[in-house]
Amino acid sequence: MVTIYGIKNCDTVRKALKWFDAKGVENKLHDFRTDGIDAKTIEGWLDEVGGTVLINKRGPSYRNLTDADKATLEQGGAAAAAILAANPTVIKRPVVDFGTTRTVAYDEKRWAELAGL
């Protein structure tokens, strides 16, 4: 089972859900807004993929952060994970969890490879 983390009304997340459904890959959506997300999970993602990949600096959620929070995000670690947990829309979407590997953003080629398609 693949877990797709994001927001249900995000176009890219909806596109990812449709892609996995069309390929017959069992999946579930974990919506940041309704299901929440804990800092420990985010810290693991930061360790695995890095802040450069995980943090969406182009969106309004990032622009609305304080300069101090933005500086903390640059440093990474538990403090950055806590900021992202409190502001999950700053996380680039979707984060797709294959169990042992995670991908960030829309990537059909990588998903097909990881799903064994």
TrEMBL record:
For this protein, the record's InterPro entries field holds: Arsenate_reductase-like, Thioredoxin-like_sf
Q: Which Pfam families match?
A: ArsC
Q: Which PROSITE patterns match?
A: ARSC (PS51353)
Q: Which PANTHER family match?
A: ARSENATE REDUCTASE, PROTEIN YFFB
Question: Which family does the UniProt entry place this protein in?
Answer: Belongs to the ArsC family.
Protein name per Swiss-Prot or TrEMBL: ArsC family transcriptional regulator
Q: What is the lineage of its organism?
A: Bacteria, Pseudomonadati, Pseudomonadota, Alphaproteobacteria, Rhodospirillales
